[in-house]
Amino acid sequence: MSGSLQVMQKQQRHHRQQEQQQHHYESSCHLSSKSSVSKQSFSTYKTTTRRLNTSVKTEKGQEVVKLSPLPKRAKRTYLAMDTDKEVIGYVIPVFRANHDAVRGLMEAREEEVTEEGINYVAMRNLFVREAREAVEVKVVKKTRATHVRESAERLELSKTMDEWAEFRKKMNPDSLTHPPEFIVKPRGQTVWEGKTLKLHCTVAGWPKPRVAWYKNNVLIDAKAHPEKYTVESNYNMHSLEIKNCDFIDTAQYTASALNVKGEASTVATVVVKRYQEGEEAGPLDPKPHGFCPEHGVTFETTILDKFEVAFGSEGETVSVGCTVIVYPTVKKYQPEVVWYRNSVPLKPSKWVHTHWSGERATLTLVHLNKEDEGMYTLRVNTKSGFDTYSAYVFVRDAEVEAEGVPVAPLDVRCHDANKDYVVVTWKQPAVEGSSSILGYYIDRCEVGTHHWAQCNYTPVKYARFPVTGLVEGRSYIFRVRALNKAGVSRPSRVSEAVVAMDPSDRARLRAGPSAPWTGMIKFTEEDSTAGVVPGEPTDVVVTEATKSYVVLAWKPPVQRGHEGVMYYIEKCISGTDTWQRVNTGMPVKSPRFALFDLAEGKSYSFRVRCCNSAGVGEASVSTGEITVGDKLDLPSAPGNAVATRNTDTSVVVSWGASKDVAHLVGYYIKCSIVGTDVWMPCNNKPVKQTRFVCHGLTTGTNYVFKVKAVNAAGYSQSSPISDAVVVQAAISIPGKPTGVTLLEAAKDYMVLGWTEPAKNGGADIRGYFVDYRTVKGDTVGKWHEMNHQALTTTSYKAENLKENVFYQFQVRAMNMAGVSKGSLPSAALECKEWTITVADAPVGLHVLEIRDTSVVVLWEPPAFNGRTPVNGYYLDVKEASAGEKGWKAAHEKANKMKYMKVTGLKAGTSYFFRVRSQNLAGVGKPSAVLGPILAQTRPGTKEIYVDVDDDGVISMIFECSEMTENSEFVWSKNYQAITDTSRLTIVTERGKSRAIFNSPSLEDLGTFSCVVTNTDGISSSYTLTEEGLKRLLDISHDHKFPVIPFKNEMAMELLEKGCVRFWTQVEKCTSACHVEYVFNDVIITQGKKYTMNFDQSTGIIEMFMDSLEVTDEGTFTFNLVDGKAKGTTSLVLIGDEFRELQKKSEFERAEWVRKQGPHFVEYLDFTVTEECNVLLKCKIGNVKPETEITWSKDNIEIAEDDEDAVKIGRKDSELTFNIGKWVIKQEKKKGKGGKKPTAEDVPPPPRPKISKTDAGIYTVFLRDDRGKDKSTFNLTDAGYQAVMNELFRVIATSSSEIKILSTEHGIILYSMITYYNEDLRVGWLHKDAKIAASERVKSGVTGEQLWLKINEPNEKDKGKYTMDIFDGKDGVKRVFDLTGQAWEEAFEEFQRLKAAAIAERNRARVVGGLPDVVAIQEGKSLNLTGNVWGEPVPEVCWMKNEKELVSDDHYKLKFEHGKFASITIAAVSTSDSGKYALVVKNKYGTEAGEFTVSVYNPDEEEEKKG
Questions:
Q1: What is the C-alpha separation between 591 and 567, in angstroms, rounded?
Q2: Are the CB atoms for 1174 and 1166 separated by under 8 Å?
Q3: CA-to-CA distance for 213 and 204, rounded, in angstroms?
Q4: Is 1471 helix (H, G, I), strand (E, B) or coil?
Q5: How far is CA 339 from the centre of its chain?
Q6: How large is the average pLDDT for residues 1415-1428?
Q7: What is the pTM of this model?
Q8: Which of 744, 743, 805 is nearest to 772 (CA)?
Q9: What share of the chain in percent tops pLDDT 90?
């Protein structure tokens, strides 16, 4: 029994071990096609039962592992606790994320893995079944023999169980499968161009790994390029064959192996060399084009329209590009266009846009930042090779928001990212601002939000900062700002986004040199370490130490389970044994930690503890004592800076590298113009090389340079300042000579001539070399030198030639830099004697002073004059677009000079020129054609100008901003070199040359020109004429003997109190100018009588006198002296002028005295208002309430109870008297007995505005204790007439424009006025002739209407009418043109009204005789007669109750004399009662006279009364 019990116990222990094993499942699937990773994490559960694994099909048909559900009792806590059962944090489930970039790689292995899995499962199940059958033991009572036999069986069973356990251990998937491992790694190789190489490797792993090859992290598709690559895989040996190696095959090749357990990769470098002499070509250097067998051609690439060095500012957009021509053109073939920055390929992004149109490659940099600065290269790859072109792009800092603040940092990057930690680095800016940078602020922003949070509140000096407190799985971007005493800079460009996650997970996510992961589910069984307290971390070190922070790093413990661990950091101050936990609140997840707020200079020790849900582990080994302080020192100053010339706008600066520097970021170069203390950055992005080309400098300016090194700790001291260098182009070999022509020929020699090169390379041409070769038909010989010593002239006599042999010649120029390339060969020239009599063609044609409409052509005389000397030249010109028939003579008569200015050219048009010589025999052949010459003024071209300095020296000045170091100003007169230095003195300083006339005279008349050598023909001229010389001599005299200019001559003015001011003003003066004040040739000084003042800022000179006395009659003078300039101004006060001024002075003084009491500011005067009210008014000043104000007329005071008192008014300081104001008596007399007032008591009608009764002398008096004043106005005679004239003016001005009105009698022209006065003269004119009054034409006034009536108008009345109103002077005219439509409408209206009036007068009517009601007794007769009028005589009828009556016995109707209509009713009865009417009618109208007839019976009436 004991044996069986032991077996059972052993079996139970074995089963418990199996049941305690944990299964760790990890799943991660990369679902996003845009490289976004969807992450899932499956937690680890601790169970007492085993979960079953089943295989199910997904929607895509893939088999994945499905886990059996957990039992309900399995409930796992995620709280991590220490040994004291204190909650210390949360356990974060481990997750793994995979890519799907090579999903097909794993799908290809499905069948193989499935087959292996089936074999494994079948074998395991078989063994387990046998084992289970073996352990089914029944406990029964047996014999000893049975017991012994069973004991033996149990021993064998135990052995079998051990073998089964060992087999199961071996058959466990986690033991059989293992990740890929490179047994043999591929080796780097160096081969010659054109060779074939193979890379080999051997890989172990189960399941069998799949191997992929990459070139510079790009997957190699061998099937797509079989002509280039071959990939083989046999028996775990893999190879990559690269055929016909080219230089572009130089790269890093990566072999990446992958299976379900993991991946591994290894890198090998391949270098392809080329057979050639000299320096080995780089990857961007152009190479010769080779034959392309694929297309059967050799592609030739040409890059045109190349972009120059570009400059931009932050925030701007810059585009650069080139035109690319690939020849020949192959259909559907395009070259590969790649852009590089600092030899690194550029990828399109939101900052970088590339475009290839098929002909032009363009690179656009959007929203420039300093990170974009660098050398940009365009590389064009074809099947035959590639070509490149490079130029630098500089990015200037944007304008700072506040003066003195630093500019933004640059190149913000993230490193060493973990679950909650990342290190941010950046580069310091080139410009610190007005003071040194104190530190930097780091900001972070979670991707997807716009909220920026500042990471540090104390500025950090180092350009490196650890950012903690990130949330795992979230993405962040960062930016940096610099701080100095003036403020904070703008933020830098944001960094690339970084994910806070475990580095191992990041490695699986990274699609770098290794093959990406596929979307799969991977599972392993967890080992028995779960639920165990983790071990201690290892290798705890201080990776960074600064004054601001310390960064610790360590390795995770080996024993940590699969649930993940977190860490506690502890510190200990040196000299103590107390360990203090730093992050008590929350453990960290990353094996990195930054400690802040440490005391600088103190020493600390650090250690780390791990924790998980099982508790807190043991502490790691201490780091030892670490002193808080900067570990990284500032770099040492760079070596001496040396500046050398490069181009007209750039300088090459080189320097010695900093010797003591760690982690060098680069160098900043600064420049300064000599004489200033302003340093400007040459680069805004640090460069690591010790040579830099500084562009964008000013030509001809002296610069000095200095260099600073920079690393994360900061800036070094500046290097020593370089020697000054002038920005000019470096010296180079000269250009080719041109125009090699034959000047003279004989039997055995020929004379050659040529034109010197346009560019001498920055140095004088020292000589020429002539080469020759023979020509026979189409065969040419080799070139041979003719002269071994350099020629100093542009002509040469080639001797020892063979007669009748053809030769070709070429010429090379030489300067101090070397010999130029040969000129274009001349035409084949035959060596034979000339027999011509005319002169040969002129030589050496060249142009100067090219402008939009003119050019100066110069030439040299021919070497062969013919039979007689040359006596003139002819210049021909034609447009470049014209044919040979387009040649035209530029002048008619022969020009004896060897130059000519051609005018009348068209701007922007190109021209050709040629010259012919003339002698007595005739005109020779034309010279070689010069051109094309573009008629266009170069930008920045300046002309010679004449200057006269302060000493009267006359000079001509010419300036040039494009000079090189060896450029010179060459002056000439009439285009001949100036040899007589006695007339001119030449002074040159930098880019300015001055030709000074020593003694200007008529001998200096002529055309002076100046040419700047080593430029593109910069030149100008100035013609000095006799008239111009005279003008310059006058200006020179004025400068030698200068006169101080006066803005105003001396003047005088009277001031308050009668004070007299003498003053003048000069246009300009210096601080040294002083004034002498003179009266009658005697210098006067400041004292009681005189006060002087000289304001040099305004140039005003003043002298004041309190009063003028008799002794002050005479001449006042101001004498000015300013250096050698003098000036004098005087004022003469004598005779009547002085006496009048003296009176005015006394009057002004009296006025001042008067104004000390109440006084009149404005004396009594009159005004007429727009309403034609006549007012007397005055203004008073300095009055008090007690000041007495009195009005009087004709010396009679106007009392308060007088009628005129109401006319007096006062408003503030203005007094008025309204002459025309209506006065109504205040008390009205009543009639006797209180009856109605009589006519005498009624107030009179309104009086006129002014009348003769208002004439008189009006006076106003002012009196108080301080004094008195009066003002008088004479309103009589002239005064009265002046008032009336002003009244007439106001009336005339108020008149409206003439209007027209038609009546039955005629036409009325009228104008409205404000008021009419009977004395106002109004005249009417017709056609400018005065209208005489008549019965038909009358004028008059009605109220405020002025009218002209034209009765019965006719055609003669048409025309212009003018109303002339007297306004006191000339009169005011109002004009109306009574013609055209105005006449027609008025006349038509007149006729209409007239006809209506006639009709009204002549229409038929009943004018009287009929009563309204007739009462008559019955039986009597009624006779009524009505008076009738009408022209013509109207028709008459009688109506009764609207029915016409007919004359009969009862009604007798009569109409006599056309005027009287009567009706007689005999014996009326009641039936005759009714309404009757006498109706009259003619052609003008009808009218009815109605009446009522009432017939009554007396008897009936009495009965009614009764």
A1: 8
A2: yes
A3: 17
A4: helix
A5: 28
A6: 87
A7: 0.42
A8: 805
A9: 22
Q: What is the dihedral of CA 1191, 1195, 1199, 1205, to 10 degrees?
A: -50
Of 438-452, 686-700, 833-847, 984-998, the poorest mean pLDDT is in 833-847
Return the C-alpha torsion angle 303, 304, 308, 312, nearest 10. -90
φ and ψ at residue 205, rounded to 5 degrees: 160, 150
CB 288 within 8 Å of CB 385? yes
DSSP lists the bridge partners of residue 705 as: 671
Tokens of 1494: 């009432």
CA torsion angle 37 40 44 45 (round to 10): -170
**pLDDT tens, position by position, 327-342:** 888 888 888 899 999 8
**Strand extents, DSSP E, 574-656:** 580-581, 592-596, 603-612, 615-619, 626-627, 642-647, 650-654
pLDDT recorded at residue 333? 85
Q: Which two tokens stand for residue 1253?
A: 């009764």
Contacts of 1413 (CB under 8 A, 6+ apart): 1491, 1492, 1494
Cβ atoms of residues 1347 and 1341 within 8 Å: yes
Please classify residue 126 by burial: count the beta carbons closer than 10 Å to its beta carbon, then call 0-12 exposed, 13-18 middle and 19+ buried.
exposed
- Least Cα distance to 370 among 433, 414, 430, 442 occurs for 430
Question: What tens digit of pLDDT does each residue of 1385-1402 get?
Answer: 889 988 898 888 888 888
DSSP-derived pairing of the beta strands 969-973 and 1006-1012: antiparallel
Report how far residue 283's alpha carbon sits from residue 274's, in angstroms, rounded to the nearest whole number. Answer: 12
Q: What average pLDDT does range 227-252 have in this prediction?
A: 88
pLDDT over 70 for what percent of the chain? 84
Tokens read off for 168: 């199961």
Q: Going edge to edge, which strands form the sheet with 210-215?
A: 189-192, 262-273, 251-259, 210-215, 218-219
Asked if residue 1187 lies in contact with residue 1263, where contact means CB atoms within 8 angstroms, the answer is yes
Res. 983 pLDDT band, cuts 50 70 90: confident
Q: What is the pLDDT of residue 1299?
A: 92
| 776, burial (CB in 10 Å: exposed 0-12, middle 13-18, buried 19+) | exposed
3-state per-residue secondary structure call for 893-949: CCECCCEEEECCCCCCCEEEEEEEEEECCEECCCCCCEEEEECCCCCCCCCCEEEEC
What's the N-to-C CA distance of the chain in angstroms?
A: 173
Q: How far is Cα 745 from Cα 2, in angstroms, rounded to an integer?
A: 138
Torsions phi, psi for 531 (to 5 deg):
85, 10
